[in-house]
């Protein structure tokens, strides 16, 4: 089964609570929350306070994508605010194994994200420890960018590794997902799709959720 995680980055920030309740009702599986610090990526978004405010509005799994330097400093705060899954970028974690253990100590599921150019090898020796690998299919920092097709062979390779070593692994793809690119990433092996602008910039976001789920059933 392929899961859909709408990213609230493209929602109306003045009405986030309504946006979250809306996508839940439309049938989304998870909620993707993009946290940016203005250092690792050239944009600043939301912190634990917003996650805490949204938590009572939804039963969805809160999938928190931390695009921040020193993510280990914020794990407990995001977990306390209501995050169910915490994803850190391998590029900012020289002690990646330690950070994964720190995520698990909070009780959250553990994910590692890789930028489009970051080789898969960086997670080779921690694969069994992970609940999810997030493969970025745009350069992180902004919604509404175009899908980078070079990520497709990377998804296939990760799927191969996961089959042998971590068959329950969530393989999430984030960036430029729409009804044309969704079937391509699913075909390659993705099982969690993040979509921001395709959902929230659509004239009928519930229809966008339905279209994505349909196109993901390749
Ligand atoms: O992490 C990010 C961007 O850095 C994403 O989660 C975006 O929010 C996805 O937006 P679209 O590419 O779907 O518009
Ligand atoms: Fe994201």
Automatic annotation (TrEMBL):
Biological-process GO terms, alphabetical: pentose catabolic process; pentose-phosphate shunt
GO molecular function: D-ribulose-phosphate 3-epimerase activity; metal ion binding
Single GO cellular component term: cytoplasm
Keyword list, A-Z: Carbohydrate metabolism, Cobalt, Isomerase, Manganese, Metal-binding, Zinc
Annotated catalysed reactions: D-ribulose 5-phosphate = D-xylulose 5-phosphate
Binding positions (substrate): 7, 65, 141-144, 174-176, 196-197
EC number: 5.1.3.1
Stated role: Catalyzes the reversible epimerization of D-ribulose 5-phosphate to D-xylulose 5-phosphate.
Name recorded for this polypeptide: Ribulose-phosphate 3-epimerase
Native species: Thermanaerosceptrum fracticalcis
Gene designation per UniProt: rpe
